[in-house]
Design goal:
The chain has five helices and no strands. By secondary structure, the chain is mainly alpha-helical. Helix 1 runs antiparallel to helix 2. The relative contact order is 0.12.
C-alpha cells in the first residue's frame, strides 16, 4: 500500500489535502465551525494517503447506544451546515472518479474518488 499511497500523493493527494486544509482554516474561524474544522483535518490526512484506510463512524465504533444524545444532535446540526459544501465536493469526486475509470491505470483512483464522494456528502 505504501507505493500506491506515494503515487497517489504525488498525482492527486497533495492538492486534495491542501483543499481540505484551506476549508479547515475557514471553518475554524467560527466557534460553530470548529468541530467541522477538526474533522476536515482528519479528512485531509485521509485524502493525502487513502490506500489501506477505512472510515468508521463513531456510532459504528462505539455502538449507537454508547454515543450521547448531545453528540448525535450536534453531529446532525453540523452535517446540515456541511451539506451544501458536501454536495459540491461529491459531484467533483464523482466526476473525477468517472474520468479515472476511462483508463485501466486510473481504476484505483476512480475507486478512491467514489468512496470519498460517498463519505464527503454526509460525514
Amino acid at each position: 500500500m505504501g507505493f500506491f499511497n506515494f503515487i497517489w500523493f504525488l498525482l492527486f493527494g497533495w492538492w486534495q489535502a491542501l483543499l481540505y486544509l484551506i476549508l479547515s482554516l475557514l471553518f475554524a474561524i467560527t466557534i460553530i465551525g470548529f468541530p467541522i474544522a477538526k474533522s476536515l483535518l482528519q479528512f485531509a490526512k485521509l485524502s493525502a494517503f487513502p490506500f489501506g484506510k477505512e472510515v468508521i463512524k463513531e456510532t459504528e465504533l462505539k455502538g449507537s447506544d454508547n454515543v450521547s444524545a448531545v453528540r448525535k444532535v450536534g453531529g446532525m446540526i453540523l452535517n446540515i451546515i456541511w451539506v451544501p459544501i458536501g454536495i459540491v465536493l461529491a459531484v467533483i469526486y464523482l466526476a473525477s472518479g468517472i474520468l479515472s475509470f476511462i483508463s485501466i491505470l486510473g481504476i484505483p483512483a476512480g475507486i478512491v474518488y467514489c468512496r470519498s464522494a460517498k463519505f464527503v456528502i454526509w460525514p
